[in-house]
Write a structure and sequence with these properties.
Number of helices: 10
CATH architecture of the largest domain: Orthogonal Bundle
Number of domains: 2
Structural class: mainly alpha
CATH superfamily of the largest domain: Winged helix-like DNA-binding domain superfamily/Winged helix DNA-binding domain
Largest sheet: none
CATH topology of the largest domain: Arc Repressor Mutant, subunit A
């Protein structure tokens, strides 16, 4: 059953279809939540709360094709709220790196612990709005338009945040002499979105 059919069945109250939808999206949602929260336990709570809200409100989606943006809006809002609520320090340790590896399937260029650590440290230095844009754009392959719907802001705001995040990440990567292949994951040329220069 395709994603759209699953969503339509969920809207009719089919719990089996919702279970299938959950398993289809859980891994990516957990990876996103982990990168936002920087802590595996909180990431799992974010995902759990997000899917509960999704289950309760899925009937309100008028266009099933908009499910991804709708769901990630819930996930990001829940993630930001829980990060602020717990008010913890974004520290990186061996346990966090292990959690990062299991929560998110990284590109093959990011398969060393040292590189994972560096990317994770760099992301942890960003503010929540900047970090979220980077996660949605680079790790979730969302377009500028879709991110603007998720975050409820103008596309120009997304471009500006992404540009500022890239500048900050570049400084961290340069400072730590991260290898070029890994840097390219974040700084690949995306000219169609006008991200090469000032946004």
């Amino acid at each position: 059953m395709g994603n759209l059919d699953l969503i339509k069945q969920c809207q009719l109250g089919d719990s089996g279809s919702f279970s299938e939808l959950y398993h289809l999206h859980r891994k990516k949602a957990l990876g996103t939540a982990y990168l936002i929260s920087n802590q595996k336990g909180i990431a799992e709570d974010i995902v759990q709360e997000s899917f509960i809200e999704c289950f309760q409100k899925i009937r309100t989606i008028k266009n099933p094709e908009a499910f991804e943006a709708w769901f990630y809006k819930i996930l990001v809002r829940t993630g930001w709220r829980m990060v602020k609520k717990h008010n913890y320090l974004l520290l990186v340790g061996d346990q966090n790196i292990e959690g990062l590896s299991t929560a998110m399937d990284f590109n093959s260029e990011l398969d060393t612990s040292e590189t994972n650590l560096m990317v994770h440290e760099a992301l942890a230095r960003l503010s929540l709005p900047l970090k979220t844009v980077v996660i949605l754009y680079y790790f979730n392959d969302m377009t500028i338009e879709k991110i603007s719907k998720v975050l409820g802001c103008f596309p120009g705001t997304v471009k500006s945040r992404l540009y500022n995040a890239r500048r900050q990440l570049h400084d961290v990567f340069k400072e730590n002499e991260l290898n070029e292949a890994a840097v390219n994951i974040f700084f690949s040329q995306r000219k169609e979105y006008g991200l090469d220069g000032n946004a």
